[in-house]
Amino acid sequence: MKTRKIILDLCGGTGAWSRPYKEAGYDVRLITLPEYDVRTYIPPNNVYGILAAPPCTMFSIARQGIKKFPRNFAVGMVVVEACLQIIWTCRLKGKLAFWALENPTGYLRQFLGKPPFNFNPCDFGNPWTKKTDLWGWFHEPKKRPVKPNQENFAAIQSVKLYPEYFGKLPREARRSITPPGFARAFFEANR
Question: Which residues in the chain land under pLDDT 70?
Answer without folding.
Answer: 1, 63-68, 150-176
